[in-house]
Amino acid sequence: MPRPGKSSYSDQKPPYSYISLTAMAIQHSAEKMLPLSDIYKFIMERFPYYREHTQRWQNSLRHNLSFNDCFIKIPRRPDQPGKGSFWALHPDCGDMFENGSFLRRRKRFKVLRPEPPLPGGVPKGPAHPPHVVHYFHPQHPGKMQGLGTSEAAVAAAAAAAAGVGRLPQFQPYGLNGSSPSSGFKHPFAIENIIGRDYKGVIQASGLPLASVMHHLGYPVSSQLSNMVSSVWPHVGVMDSMASMPVSHEYGPFGVPMKALCHPPGQTMPAVPVPIKPTLALPPVSAIPALTVNPSQICPSTSPASSSLLEQTPSTPSEGKSALHSVLVHS
DNA sequence: TACTGTTTAAGGTATG
DNA sequence: CATACCTTAAACAGTA
């Protein structure tokens, strides 16, 4: 087994699973979601091992994307033509990796989906149905596209609001040794940033948070990344790779993220969206508010360009109500 | 047609 | 040793 950090195994197999590699790629992207081809590209650029036998590992990677609930599929918008969907990390898979390291997962991420009480008795889906999610048009919040029905989304929202469909074994773990059951939420957790009142709605809708916030006009890309990076340094390490020359070595990912990023004895989430199902939440008032300029609502395909300093004090209520209306009126 | 996505199956490895 | 996780292969369907 090659030792991470050594430069002598440049074309040997990295110690990361396909799930890890995919998560890296997705996390590294500004929008926290990537099309399949870009995931390939990311891996091949950084891990020379994967520049060969592409058929083999790309098939495996696709298998992982479909099979694992930690990956969610986001349909392209009409203004984003291209082949295939975007792939993102499920908001709840934050502590998927052991000790925040990409080297090994702590537990398989599995979403339990409640059977939506659809009239007419719809046959059950496959054993691990894909995470096909809906997107909606900010200009036409009543319209949702994607597979399935909007009724199902609403039903799922109701189910999730009732606490259904969450894995009991997916206990949160705190940053300061807080007990797993304490329900500690980092102040910069997205759900805390956007508020808990419709977090469940977002999750239940199947909409990935990055996508939801993006569509709502939240400056997901750089701002959240910046905020998150200040709290989870390893995310910053990953983001910093964007400007790093791609060597023929493993680069930052050749080093165990655990050793690289985490103080000894401290565990951190592996992804910047450490949202876990809990009942006890800190008061929203204790959360630094993420402000949004109303003029920036629904920036369609805005890339990661704005910064926190560019924001004017406001509330995300417009986007909030937009999402709400989607789920209510659809 | 190539790419993307889903699903099944089997075998290997790590962990408790 | 049982279980979970991971990898690989392959068949098949849908789509740009």
UniProtKB/TrEMBL annotation:
GO BP: anatomical structure morphogenesis; cell differentiation
UniProt subcellular location: Nucleus
Primary site of residence: nucleus
GO annotation, cellular component aspect: nucleus; ribosome
Annotated region described as Disordered, given as residue ranges: 301-330
Residue ranges of DNA binding: 13-107
InterPro entries per record: Fork_head_dom, FOX_domain-containing, FOXB1_B2_FH, TF_fork_head_CS_1, TF_fork_head_CS_2, WH-like_DNA-bd_sf, WH_DNA-bd_sf
Keyword Ligase recorded: no
Keyword flag Cell division: no
Keywords: DNA-binding, Nucleus, Ribonucleoprotein, Ribosomal protein, Transcription, Transcription regulation
Domain called Fork-head: residue spans: 13-107
Pfam family, one: Forkhead
Biased composition (Polar residues): 301-318
PROSITE patterns: FORK_HEAD_1, FORK_HEAD_2, FORK_HEAD_3
GO molecular function: DNA-binding transcription factor activity, RNA polymerase II-specific; RNA polymerase II cis-regulatory region sequence-specific DNA binding
The name this protein goes by in its record: 60S ribosomal protein L22
Organism, as annotated: Platysternon megacephalum
